[in-house]
Design brief:
binds pyridoxal-5'-phosphate, globular, about 40% helix, alpha/beta, Aspartate Aminotransferase, domain 1
Amino acid sequence: MKRTTGQDRTITTKWRAATRAVRGGTWRSEQGETSEAIYMTSGYCYDDAETVADRFAGKIPGMTYSRTQNPSVQMLEERIALMEGAEACRCMASGMAAMSSVMLAALSAGDHMVIAKAAFGPTRWVTDNLLPRFGIACTAVDGADLNQWRDAIQPNTKLFFFETPANPTMDIVDIRAVCDIAHERGIRVVVDNAFATSALQKPLELGADVVAYAATKLMDGSGRTLAGAVAGDANFINTVLHPYIRNTGNTLSPFNAWVVLKGLETLDLRAQAQSAAALDVGAWLETRVPRVLHPGLPSHPQHALVQAQMKAAGSIFSFEVDGGREAAMALLNALELIDISNNIGDAKSLMTHPASTTHSSISPETRAAMGVTEGMVRISVGLEDVQDLKDDLDQALRSVGL
Ligand SMILES: *Cc1c(COP(=O)(O)O)cnc(C)c1O
């Protein structure tokens, strides 16, 4: 097949972001299919025994086993690398496989890391419960406070990790400023960019070393599959992360890789449309509830920083209702259109109560320190008509007396 340009960086790096998202990494078979093929295979066959020996020895390129490489997964990896402006990328079975793999591959017993405390619940479980069992210490800081990042550094600090915007408090971390603090001390910076995606925020351009994803969310975009991705410099991805993935096996299925490939084709359009809708709903909610935490609204304490480092504020935000957990749950139960779901980044609008769902695995004290209140509700705005979303929220708020 002549035009297999999606894998040829001399051509693909000339493409702009939208083109990379549609065509980057595409690898056509001799059939010339337009849509990426799903290589649903665990193994590979060889013309002769010497070829397989050379592939195992790394002397010639080529697949050996789908725990190590698969064409459909490699298409996705190359596409994400191009979209991020990264040298390399590896995809994994879920977002948490990506987050935990980065930490376990990069850190050893005796090392220390610093995390912004407002992070995805399971990520905090890994840093607070799993890593200490292997002699890796973690300090949680207020990600918005640069002095806390500076003060948390120890002689053995190897990694800074943060989400921005953070789930579900919508705290923003100044990516460039935190990277500068880290790099003065030779510390690697990992950004979980799930809420923004490359369509809205490019952490590597702002100085981060590694960007990590739950591709489950906006990158799939239709709530179909779990997937994770980590992109960064070739040395870290190929020599630190790759051996960890291939030997522990949290590999992404070729089918799931294909689902995400298809999702990426429309990521930019969806991210723009859903961001605009979320801003509209958020501004309206400010007239109805005591507190809205939306990075795109002027009421957000870090609004200026949001405008400086993000193209748009994204489709997810939180708000608080009076009456604590009881009122928050009653509100969810009164919804007629928006689904009660702890997922995000779907074309369908979804709402959840973080304290009892996504953040229930962390202690009430840590939760309170993170600012996850009992009356907090998180919404992921989808692609429905915005007026229908406002109407549904309005009738639900009214029916529970809010
Ligand atoms: C969902 C999510 C994860 C974990 O992704 P999974 O695919 O569910 O494992 C990690 N970080 C953030 C910010 C998320 O939203």
